C-alpha cells in the first residue's frame, strides 16, 4: 500500500517535469493512477477471491489513500492553482482552502474518531451510515452529469495515460516490488495486486472539478471501469492459478 505512494510520486514527477504539465493537472492525474477504489470494488472482489486478508489490506489502503495520497494531491493541486504568488501567500491561502474542504474535514474527523475509539450515538451513526450508502450512487450521478455533452477530442491521450497508469503501471509496480521484498504473506501479496488493479476511487471526478479536470477525470473513471472488467478477471485468474505467488515470491 505504501507502493501506491511511490506510484503517485513517480507519476507526479514524470507528468510535471518530463511532460511539463502544471501542478494541478499533474497532481490529479497522478492521483487517478495511484488511488484505487478499495472500498467499493477492491475489497469485495479480493474478499471473494482471497478471503480474510482482504480486510487487513483494505484498512492499509484506506489509511494510505485517505490520510496521505488524497490530501497530498489536493495540497499540490492548490499550490499549482496559485502559481506565481509569493510562497507565504500560497501557503496561507492553500491552508485556508484545505481546512474548509469537506473532504479534508471528513478525513480528519474519521481519523480522529477511529484513533480515539469514539462510538457515535445511534442516531448519528445511522445518519452517517445512510450517507455512506448514498455516496456511490451520488458519485455515479455526478459522473453521468459531467459526461453529458463531453467531447473527448484532444483529450484522448490524457485520458488514456491515466487509465494506463491505473490499470497497468500501478499493479505491475506493486508486483515488481514484491519480487524484491519477498517476505510478505502470499495471500496479502495477491490482495494488494488485486487492489492495485481496480479503477480509481469513485469521487475522482468530484475531486477534479475544482481544478477544471472534472471531464477528464470522469472519462478516465468511466473507461477504466469498463476495461477493468477484463483486467481484474485476469488478475483473479492469475491468483487462482497461483501465478502471482510464484512470480512475486
From TrEMBL:
<keyword id="KW-0812">Transmembrane</keyword>
<feature type="transmembrane region" description="Helical">
    <location>
        <begin position="44"/>
        <end position="77"/>
    </location>
</feature>
<keyword id="KW-0472">Membrane</keyword>
<dbReference type="GO" id="GO:0055085">
    <property type="term" value="P:transmembrane transport"/>
</dbReference>
<dbReference type="Pfam" id="PF03547">
    <property type="entry name" value="Mem_trans"/>
</dbReference>
<keyword id="KW-1133">Transmembrane helix</keyword>
<feature type="transmembrane region" description="Helical">
    <location>
        <begin position="98"/>
        <end position="119"/>
    </location>
</feature>
<dbReference type="GO" id="GO:0016020">
    <property type="term" value="C:membrane"/>
</dbReference>
<feature type="transmembrane region" description="Helical">
    <location>
        <begin position="162"/>
        <end position="182"/>
    </location>
</feature>
<feature type="transmembrane region" description="Helical">
    <location>
        <begin position="131"/>
        <end position="150"/>
    </location>
</feature>
<dbReference type="InterPro" id="IPR004776">
    <property type="entry name" value="Mem_transp_PIN-like"/>
</dbReference>
<keyword id="KW-0813">Transport</keyword>
<protein>
    <recommendedName>
        <fullName>Permease</fullName>
    </recommendedName>
</protein>
<feature type="transmembrane region" description="Helical">
    <location>
        <begin position="188"/>
        <end position="207"/>
    </location>
</feature>
<feature type="transmembrane region" description="Helical">
    <location>
        <begin position="219"/>
        <end position="239"/>
    </location>
</feature>
<keyword id="KW-1003">Cell membrane</keyword>
Amino acid at each position: 500500500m505504501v507502493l501506491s505512494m511511490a506510484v503517485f510520486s513517480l507519476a507526479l514527477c514524470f507528468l510535471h517535469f518530463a511532460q511539463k504539465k502544471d501542478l494541478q493537472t499533474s497532481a490529479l492525474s497522478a492521483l487517478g493512477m495511484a488511488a484505487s477504489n478499495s472500498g467499493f470494488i477492491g475489497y469485495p472482489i479480493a474478499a471473494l477471491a482471497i478471503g480474510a486478508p482482504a480486510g487487513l489490506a483494505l484498512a492499509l489502503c484506506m489509511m494510505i489513500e485517505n490520510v496521505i495520497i488524497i490530501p497530498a494531491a489536493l495540497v499540490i493541486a492548490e499550490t499549482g492553482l496559485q502559481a506565481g504568488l509569493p510562497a507565504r501567500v500560497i501557503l496561507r491561502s492553500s491552508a485556508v482552502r484545505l481546512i474548509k474542504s469537506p473532504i479534508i474535514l471528513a478525513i480528519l474527523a474519521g481519523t480522529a474518531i477511529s484513533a480515539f475509539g469514539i462510538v457515535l450515538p445511534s442516531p448519528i451513526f445511522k445518519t452517517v451510515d445512510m450517507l455512506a450508502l448514498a455516496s456511490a450512487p451520488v458519485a455515479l450521478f455526478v459522473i453521468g452529469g459531467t459526461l453529458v455533452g463531453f467531447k473527448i477530442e484532444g483529450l484522448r491521450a490524457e485520458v488514456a495515460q491515466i487509465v494506463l497508469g491505473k490499470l497497468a503501471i500501478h499493479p505491475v509496480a506493486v508486483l515488481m516490488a514484491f519480487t524484491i521484498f519477498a517476505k510478505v504473506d502470499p495471500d496479502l501479496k495477491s490482495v494488494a495486486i488485486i487492489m492495485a488493479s481496480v479503477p480509481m476511487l469513485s469521487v475522482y471526478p468530484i475531486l477534479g472539478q475544482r481544478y477544471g479536470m472534472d471531464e477528464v477525470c470522469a472519462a478516465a473513471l468511466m473507461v477504466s471501469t469498463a476495461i477493468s472488467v477484463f483486467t481484474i478477471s485476469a488478475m483473479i485468474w492469475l491468483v487462482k492459478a497461483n501465478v502471482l505467488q510464484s512470480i512475486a515470491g
